[in-house]
Amino acid sequence: MARLTLTPQLEHLRASVEAARSTLDVEAIHQARVASRRLRVFLSLGDVHVLHDDLRWLARGLSRVRDLDVVQAEGLGGDFGHWLRAQHEAARVDARAVLEHPRLDGLLRALAFVEPLSRRQAEARREALVDEVEAAWGAFREAPGHEVLEALHRLRRRARSARYASEWVGAETAPFRRLQEAAGAACDVIALGALVREYEAQASVTSADAPQLEAVVRERLVPALLAQAW
Amino acid sequence: MKLYLVRHAIAEDGPDDDARALTKEGVARFRQQVALLERLDVTFDRVLHSPKKRAVDTAELLERLCEGDFEVTPLLATAPTDRLLEACVGEAVALVGHEPHLSTLLAWLVLGEKVAGKVELKKGAVACLDGTAAPGQMQLTWLLPPRVARRAGLD
Fold first, then answer.
1. Of A118, A123, A161, B135, which is most buried, counting CB atoms within 10 Å of its CB?
2. By CA distance, what is B21's nearest residue in A?
3. Which residue, among A47, A48, A49, A50, would best test binding to B if mutated, counting the most B CBs under 10 Å from its CB?
4. What DSSP character marks residue B11?
5. How many residue contacts between A and B have a Cβ separation below 8 Å?
6. Cα–Cα distance for residue pair B67/B47, rounded to 1 Å
7. pLDDT digits over B33-72, tens only?
């Protein structure tokens, strides 16, 4: 039975990192983050523990610039929009520090020699990840109001892992992608709420926006997700 | 802090130094070493390791002793520098690397001088240092060559 190799995603990560280093292009940064997550799932499928934390460090180090990019795409104006643009620029500078960190060079160097995976082992582990999506979905459905946002985040992460695991073994990805995207849309609104709160704290202003955004997630997006995604 | 210097286990020969994997014997012997460390209640809150495959594989075998994060760093694949010392943050940190860099690091931390060959670190050996990760500021507490675990018959 053929073995699975991480080479295609490693090449994608290398190319994305190279592009991001030279231009700080937001799409290249995003692609580096996505590749790092796919590679983490590959390591999970092989029950490999080392390099996981390095890939998570990379994804986290690049996440703020992406989150701000998503919000900026809404074209928000006023003081908040101005603050968002300044935060976005600062996040790009922080991303550069991650991209130029020796840890990333070590990571790329080490990933080149990760052993190929047995397909049978990968498929068995994928089944376990699918079970985790089922469990997260059940927990999300049953979550009391004050825990629903946390359950939503967990569901999104589980769906993403199952999707990437399915990609690695060549299984169907569509149900997990739909779930990930639906949960992701709700999580983007929550992230916007968090940015509003951060802005308020820094600018010493208050508004009703943040609680309203969380109410939108609880009252509209969560029921829509429950009705359609899975 | 406690700093554990871990030399990678026995590895294959090969033309690409980064790619050399552990041998079966190397894995088996280092598992004995890990079992002994476990009996000694050794745990790590961070494991830093070189990106060379034999160090990555050795770090993987330390997984059950690690209560925190793993971190790959090219600083462990070269002669020790101030930047490596700055990376040694934590209460119980393991550094998985190579010779002659590890014994040079040991001498630097204990004696204050970057000299190689003052301490023999066999493949799979572990040295425990206590103190502050700065030149001349650490004490060598113990050194565990792999044959101790082997003779104890641990698996």
1. A161
2. A113
3. A50
4. B
5. 55
6. 9
7. 999 999 999 999 999 999 999 999 999 999 999 999 999 9
Residue B10 distance to chain A (closest CA, Å): 17
Q: Is B8 on the interface with A (CB under 8 A)?
A: no
Q: Give the C-alpha separation, A205 to A65, whole Å.
A: 24
A110 CB neighbours in chain B (<8 A) are: 51-53, 56, 72
A152-188: pLDDT as tens digits: 999 999 999 999 999 999 999 999 999 998 888 888 8
B144: alpha, beta or left? (left if phi > 0; alpha if psi -120 to 50): beta
For residues B128 and A83, the model is more confident at B128
Q: Which of B52, B60, B72 has the CB atom closest to A103's CB atom? A: B72
Closest CA of chain A from B139, distance in Å: 28
Q: What's the pLDDT score for residue A213?
A: 66
pTM, rounded to two decimals: 0.92
- What is the per-residue pLDDT for A157? 95
Measured between beta carbons, which residues in chain A are less than 8 angstroms from residue B19? Answer: 112-113
DSSP assignment, residue A219?
A: I
The model's pLDDT over A3-52, given as tens digits with 9 standing for 90+, comes to: 999 999 999 999 999 999 999 888 999 999 999 999 999 999 999 999 99
How far apart CA A58 and CA A102 sit, in angstroms, is 12
Q: Is the CB of A94 inside 8 Å of chain B's CB atoms?
A: no
**B95 within 8 A of B3, measured Cβ to Cβ:** yes
